[in-house]
Amino acid sequence: MHTTTLVPTTCPYLVSAQGDRMRLTQEAYELAKQVAQVLSSPSEGKGRGPHLVGTGTAAKVLGVSRRTVARMIDRRELPCERIGGNHHRRVAMEDVVSLALRVRAQRSAALEEMRDAADEAGFYDTDLSSYLDGLG
After folding, report:
1. pTM of the model
2. How far apart are CA 95 and CA 52, in angstroms?
């Protein structure tokens, strides 16, 4: 009989069937959870294999619209395979996850730059109490 032991941790881990653990950042965990939810949906098992997904599924993982995914494909930011007489586009989940990680890294870097610029400009040193008093 197989028993499961819950071990409290302060950070998320990815655990293999063999019990190997890989530590994840919170951001990587959220993405992995989202991908797992998408891939476990019944619509993803329709004969094309779990590694190829439609533009709607890619859109869910990326947090954008299906049309935005189509534009990414058209701009060659996301490779695709055409199925069914060139009408239906399928993308590899690996490419979707890779793109999602790149986009998130770019967003984080841009946010960090904005924080640094605001700090250098002294925005965090400003006393806002007089401004807030004027609002109420």
Report:
1. 0.58
2. 10
